[in-house]
Amino acid sequence: MGRRVGILYRQDGTERGIRVPVAALYDFMMKPLEKLVLGRHRRAVLARVGRHRRILEVGVGTGGNLRHYLPHIEFRVDEDAEQWGVSAQSDELPGGVAGTVEIIAVDVSDAMLTAARREAQRLGAADLVQFRVMDVQNLDLPNDYFDCVLATCVFCSVNDPVRGLSEVHRVLAPGGELILMEHGGSARPVLGPFLDALNPLTVRVFGEHLNRDVARAARAAGFCILRQRNMALDVLREIVAVKNENF
After folding, report:
1. Per CATH, the architecture of 25-182+212-243 is what?
2. CA 215, 149, 122 angle in degrees (round to 5)?
């Protein structure tokens, strides 16, 4: 029997739960949280993306991050380049990086990518980002390629976060930077138990783990954590890590 629309599946193919149609409702549901909390923290975290020239965004969703890091990248279009639409040319990027700039954004959902393409078009950047349907747990991308991989609130819903982050580790070049904004559990006496109690429901309905330790998963995948900073209480965190070449 084939897989049913609207169902979450485990890696062995068995049904894990139902899925709310988040592609259609995502921006509507997230708008209050984006205005109150997430938007300003995205801006702070993603400003550093501009120093890189080969960038991969995993779990791009509806493209909510694009407006926060594209303005930090200075492009000069090479009209003769055969791969126009995948990359552009930069005379001098923030951080002193020069040369071709390549941005690839992936997501498991076609519907999400359709929304992300619309957002890129709205920003005047439709030709600067290549969008691909892809699972972070199985990236069809070359080894040791990207200078930077970024994700915001993604690994809370990846079936196997260590496997996904191991794939990110594989495609990052030596010294490559992983930039994450993720939520997780809390050490606070009321908030922590509340998130733990709510977690089974959010996993079943949304496939989202409220109390997952993404930094721990990153270490298990071979990353060295450079910085971990609380951004909203101790639930939302910025994580900056680099590839451990000896892993």
Report:
1. 3-Layer(aba) Sandwich (3.40)
2. 120
Instruction: Please state, in angstroms and rounded to a whole number, the distance separating the CA atoms of residues 8 and 223.
Output: 29
pTM score, whole prediction: 0.78
Domain map (residue ranges) of the chain: 25-182+212-243
Residues 155-196 pLDDT 10s: 988 989 999 999 999 999 998 999 998 877 777 888 777 777
Q: Is 28 exposed, middle or buried (0-12, 13-18, 19+ CB in 10 A)?
A: exposed
Cα dihedral value 158, 138, 66, 116, nearest 10: -90
- Alpha-helix residue ranges (DSSP H) falling in the chain: 22-33, 39-46, 66-69, 110-122, 161-171, 191-206, 214-220
